[in-house]
Amino acid sequence: MSNVTIENLDIRLSGVSIISQLNLSVQSGEFLVLLGPSGCGKSTLLHSIAGLIDVSDGRLEIGGTDVTWADPKDRGIGMVFQSYALYPTMTVEKNLSFGPRIAGVAKAEIARRVERAASMLHLTELLGRKPAQLSGGQRQRVAIGRALVREAGVFLFDEPLSNLDAKLRSELRRELKQLHQQLGATMIYVTHDQVEAMTLATRIAVMKAGQIQQIDTPAAVYARPVNMFVAGFLGAPSMNFIEGRIECVNGAAHFVSPTLLLDVSSYPFANPPQNNLPSVLGVRPEHITLAPPGTDRAGHATVSLVEPMGANQVVWLDAQGVSLAVDADAQFVAPPDRKIAFAIAPAQVSLFDLQSQMRL
Amino acid sequence: MSASAIKAPNRRSARPRFSPARLGVYALLVSAAVFFLLPLYVMVTTSLKPMDEIRLGQLFAFPLHPTFAPWIEAWSTACTGLECRGIQVGFWNSVKIAVPSTIASIFLGALNGYALSFWRVKWAAPLFGVLMFGAFVPYQVMMYPLVRTLATVGLFGTLPGIVLIHTVFGMPVMTLLFRNYYASVPVELFKAARIDGGGFWRIFLQLMLPMSLPIIAVAVIMQMTNIWNDFLLGLVFAGRENLPMTVQLNNVINTTTGERLYNVNMASTILTSLLPLTVYLISGRWFVRGIAAGAVKG
Amino acid sequence: MARPKAARRPRAAAAQIALLPMALTVLGVYIGTVLWSIRISFSSSRIFPKNDFVGLAQYERLFQTERWIVSLNHIVIFGVLFIAACLVLGFVLAVFLDQRVRGENALRTAFLYPYAMSFVATGLVWQWMLNPGLGIQAAVRNLGFPDFQFDWIVSQDMVIYTLVIAAVWQASGLVMAVLLAALRGVDESLWNAARIDGVPRWRYYLSVVLPQLGPAFGTAFVLLAVGVVKVYDVVVAMTQGGPGNASEVPAKFIMDNLFTRANVGLASAASTVMLLTVLALLLPWWYGRSVQARRAAHA
């Protein structure tokens, strides 16, 4: 398996700069997810790693070899497209062997590789079928099989699950994760779906406007987002944001807002905060606890809406004009317009500078 | 992972814009364009040359003394058989034939397509199948019986007769066109109209037809072009007073005695092709849509 | 959008009345005249139809008429060359236009405009261009090649090829339009997948794209083939079937015998043969299409 190193990458399309000065290092065997909204450049980045788009400047290495200007076929990559892009008039066997046949690989070797890929991916009985006769999961495996047969060092995925319905999507997601565990291959995966990112990735790179905002394990990106964009992108329902200020008095720091007052002295600030710094408190719905009104808690609010989810419920609160989502136990009774108290554990919050939106 | 999977990269910088392959593509396309445009060029230049220039035998030369005289002659004094009133006679005949035929064939096609798509008529499906087959039947097979029938009812060689013929022969393609179009209209629209109390004709005239403007545009282009360019049906059924422009054109060129006036011939050809070419140039994409809808000429 | 099954659609007397023109057309024109023609072909009609029955006599006569046999030869030669040239040229043009070239619209307009012209106009223009004394032959000779020969249009052996040239000029644009539309329907990411597989562009078109164009080629072939059987206008305009009978075609044979030579029985026999040929061309295509549709419905 290969690692991938990207240095100072610039990509300009039709005069518009899509990616600028991007640096990325993908370890061998890891599952890296490029996550971001439409237009953030993640697909462009993936296609440039594949060699389908030319870079304007920078350096790209795969497995230690400089492939910045190499043809796609010489990069040791395999790619799975959103539509899987299987050759519709060829059987599965021909689909898998097409690349090596073009490259002039010996027939015996081709047969060996095809057989190996087919058995790994449970495609052996399907070798004679055409893509139209395959299910979505089988097609995905054939697309991956193509990369296996080419003995690729890096597998690239361009939103392969976006076209599918929810049930099939979660099924194929699990298959993919299993495959990764089985093959130990280096995989770079592009998606806008944060659930896919969280469940599949060993590391997530959150992208916005051609820049990587944060790259870390799913748990780290979830618990310690580096800015408000990342914080709001991951998690559903997304993180609650409350504006206020930080008051530093006698070495103790408090977050002060009309909605609530919270002691954040134990918060791991990167730098000591200024007094009265306008800031935003971010807290995930599952980190807010509800209690009957009158209890001594951090804040009080009125229930505005409840969304039962079966195992739990999402309770939407109106706290002095600020809307908060709370992930509560299904048993908790919270009818609309009921006054309620809520508490926030200081250890679970994220604090952001209001102006820069960066984590404090 | 085998080391052979990553080959040494080609030492090239950014892909060159004008590779030999790309130049080859343009070369072929331009040569093809020349092949296709050459007759047009020859047609136009010949029509603008005086006869002594044409006799020089320089087919591709630009006219030295361009003149519109051949055009005027073609339009107003060329001999189309017994008369020498020019091809304008054919022009107006073609208009008189094409306009009613287009309207009638489109109306019937739309009506058929609508009835077939939304209503239940037991005997309609097999007949529609035969109608589709009918689009491919050569005219010659049906020619003699049609001549006899029209003669019996006194419509042979008359304007209503040729309009009827064009309407009948346009029915397969027009019906197919509209049926396919109405198949893509959500049936809920029709159901809502019925709930609102609409009957067969009201839904057709007040809902479906107004909604069909895009496909009507395609149909108009197809029918106007095909009917205007028709030769065989006009020759047989139109009658001497109503001969369309294509028939007159053939008469001008192939049945004159004496010296052939090639510039007048070419001018006549251009004049005859002017309407369909204009329709084509203006409609562009719609024309192609008509082809994609399975239109076939002749 | 699925059509409601026929059984669930409403009934109305108005619908039946509205479809009467279609019914009359199909029964009266398409079925009626064809049957009538076939009936005549079994009679000894000359100028006027006779009600007798002479079996296959007209057909025997037909296949002993030299002009008819000659026209069949010509139509086969013309048909094969015309269809092959149109399919190849149309495909090449479509592929090259698909390469995201600049001026695609202008080029497409140039390739397709001949189809907007009548067959008569096409025949006349090419007749003029191929005129030995004043057309291409003369022009090239005047350019300094005194031995250049291009008098095909007056040569008994070569005139059929002039018809092919004119017809290909007119119709390849149509084939190109049909194939280009089909090309645009090919999944774009297939080319990316092919690039990663290391497939060169020409091989991609040959092995991946071409097989997918089967139905489009089928449609184009049928359109062209039916046009071949019916070809009349361009022959009348360009060569009048000459020199002599060297460019005689079945459609013209039939028309001449129906009207000028008043041989209605013979002409009807010939048109029946023409009809059977069209049927023979269409049935395999229709069968293939309905099998495909059935397969898609069950998939």
Keywords for this structure?
heterotrimer; B: 298 residues; mainly alpha; MetI-like fold; 14 helices; 0% strand; globular; C: 299 residues; 72% helix; flat
Query: What's the CATH topology name of the domain at 96-244 and 275-292 in chain B?
Result: MetI-like fold
CATH architecture of chain C: Orthogonal Bundle
Biggest interface, CB < 8 A: B-C, 102 and 101 residues
Q: State the separation between the terminal residues of chain B, measured CA to CA.
A: 62 Å
- Helical fraction of chain C: over 70%
Q: How many H/I helical runs of chain B?
A: 14
Level-2 CATH architecture of the domain at 96-244 and 275-292 in chain B: Orthogonal Bundle
Number of helices of chain C: 14
What is the beta-strand fraction of chain B? under 5%
Order of helices and strands of chain C: HHHHHHHHHHHHHH
The count of domains of chain C is 1
Order of helices and strands of chain B: HHHHHHHHHHHHHH
Radius of gyration of chain B: 26 Å
Structural category of chain C? mainly alpha
Superfamily at the CATH H level of chain C?
MetI-like
CATH class of the domain at 96-244 and 275-292 in chain B reads Mainly Alpha
- Overall geometry of chain B: globular
The coarse overall form of chain C would be: flat
The gyration radius over C-alpha positions of chain C equals: 24 Å
Q: How confident overall, as mean pLDDT of chain C?
A: 86
Task: Write structural notes for this entry.
The complex is a heterotrimer of chains A (360), B (298) and C (299). Chain A has 360 residues and is α+β, with helices and mostly antiparallel strands. Chain A has helices at residues 42-50, 92-103, 107-120, 136-149, 166-183, 194-200, 218-223, 228-233; strands at residues 4-13, 16-26, 31-35, 57-62, 65-66, 77-80, 154-158, 186-191, 203-208, 211-216, 240-249, 252-256, 261-263, 277-283, 288-291, 299-308, 312-319, 322-329, 339-344, 350-353. In chain A, the strands form four sheets. Chain A has a six-stranded mixed β-sheet, sandwiched between helices. In chain A, strands 13-12-11-14-20 form a five-stranded antiparallel β-sheet. The longest helix of chain A has 18 residues, at 166-183. In chain A, helix 3 (107-120) packs across helix 4 (136-149). Chain A contains eight helices and 20 strands. Chain B is mainly alpha-helical and 298 residues long. Chain B has a domain at 96-244 and 275-292: MetI-like fold. Chain B contains 14 helices and no strands. Mean pLDDT of chain B is 85; it is low at 1-14. Chain C has helices at residues 13-18, 20-41, 57-64, 66-97, 104-116, 119-129, 136-142, 159-184, 189-196, 201-212, 214-230, 233-238, 250-260, 264-298. The model of chain C has no long low-confidence stretch (mean pLDDT 86). Chain C starts with 12 loop residues before the first helix and ends with a helix. The longest helix of chain C is centred in the last third of the chain and has 35 residues, at 264-298. Helices cover 72% and strands 0% of the residues of chain C. Chain C has 299 residues and is an all-alpha fold. Classes of the chains: A alpha+beta (360), B mainly alpha (298), C mainly alpha (299).
